[in-house]
Design a protein that fits this description.
seven-stranded parallel beta sheet; six-stranded antiparallel barrel; about 350 residues; Elongation Factor Tu (Ef-tu), domain 3; 15 strands
Length: about 350
């Protein structure tokens, strides 16, 4: 079998013409050390704060500490699947969650993935979990009430749409019950409710879900669940994810109510993450930015101006206190951020 030189030439010309010189540039680094849900990575030069990082075995992380020669990241998955020397890829995406009408009625985790055993939903878009709060010009005074359905509260301590009202009390005083009642009472009021469970027992979250389903309130409610069995990184992200879901409805001119249950456990999760990232401890071993953590979360609750659609996001943070001590560190912080308290 003979091949003519002309044939070889034409094949070579064809190969040269179709040769792709495209170069794909990826920012990669190497894991220096890993353990307790945090990793140190060397070599991610263009990494941004809160950027999603991709580890092997489908584990993701968030870059939090950008130091001179390494990046400190928290892992959103099993740290046993990541080992020293593994290659890490920067995704270029800031940590975000899926939002949209389809998320209503579902139970999701802090990353917006469904955990209720039903098929996944189609997200309208992805929203960054950390965004700036509306400024003074973008807001308007709070003037519509948000009824909780509890006469004593609605008469004495009325809550307005767009407010931040702290629900505070010892354990087993009915803080969650007040909030579940408030969700049930929004039936027919065109208010989307988001219940964020941070560090709760799975049985508690299940009972809340059952109560809402019995009352027919799950039709307009989203549960963001970061139970005590999840890593501290997921518990730290959960309220921001819940807030991003609420902001989607607020920005569309609708009304949303978000409940953070509770912010003391959220602070503890952030303290754990911060100490593992070797950030310097402050009062009660909490990091120095603990006030900023809660203020940037709660300031996002607002009643928007008429030009922006007049939507609102109301926040009901819960804080559990020990033996009536309202002078504790986290308690006084959250009291000073919120517009008022319901003390049980």
């Amino acid at each position: 079998m003979s091949i003519s030189p002309a044939e070889i030439t034409s094949i070579l010309k064809q190969q040269i013409a179709s040769f792709d010189t495209g170069v794909s540039v990826e920012s990669v680094g190497t894991v220096l050390q890993v353990g307790d849900g945090v990793a140190r990575i060397h070599g991610l030069k263009d990494c941004k704060v809160s950027e999603m990082l991709e580890f092997p075995n489908g584990v993701f992380g968030i870059a939090l500490n950008l130091e001179e020669d390494n990046v400190g990241a928290i892992l959103l998955g099993e740290d046993r699947l990541v080992k020293e020397g593994d290659t890490v890829k920067a995704t270029g995406r800031i940590i975000s969650v899926p939002v949209g009408e389809a998320v209503v009625g579902r139970v999701v985790n802090a990353l917006g993935a469904v955990v209720d055993g039903r098929p996944p939903f189609k997200a309208e878009r992805y929203a960054n979990i950390e965004t700036g709060a509306p400024n003074v010009v973008q807001r308007q005074p709070v003037h519509e009430p948000l009824q909780t359905g509890i006469k004593a509260i609605d008469a004495m301590i009325p809550i307005g749409r767009g407010q931040r009202e702290l629900v505070i009390g010892d354990r087993q005083t009915g803080k969650t019950a007040v909030c579940v009642d408030a969700i049930i009472n929004q039936k027919g009021q065109d208010v989307v409710c988001i219940y964020v469970a941070i560090g709760q027992k799975m049985s508690t979250v299940k009972s809340v879900q059952k109560a809402l389903e019995t009352a027919g309130a799950m039709d307009y409610t989203v549960i963001v669940n970061a139970p005590a069995s999840e890593q501290a990184s997921m518990q730290f992200m959960a309220p921001f994810a819940g807030c991003a879901i609420g902001e989607y409805f607020r920005d569309k001119g609708k009304h949303a109510l978000v409940i953070y249950d509770d912010l003391y456990k959220h602070a503890i999760a952030w303290r754990q993450v911060s100490l593992l990232l070797r950030r310097p401890p402050g009062r009660e071993a909490f990091p120095g930015d603990i006030f900023n953590l809660h203020s940037r979360l709660l300031e996002r609750a607002a009643k928007l101006s008429k030009e922006l659609g007049g939507g609102s996001l109301t926040a009901l943070p819960l804080v559990e206190i020990q033996q009536g001590d309202v002078t504790a560190y986290i308690t006084t912080n959250v009291i000073s951020i919120t517009d008022g308290q319901i003390y049980l």
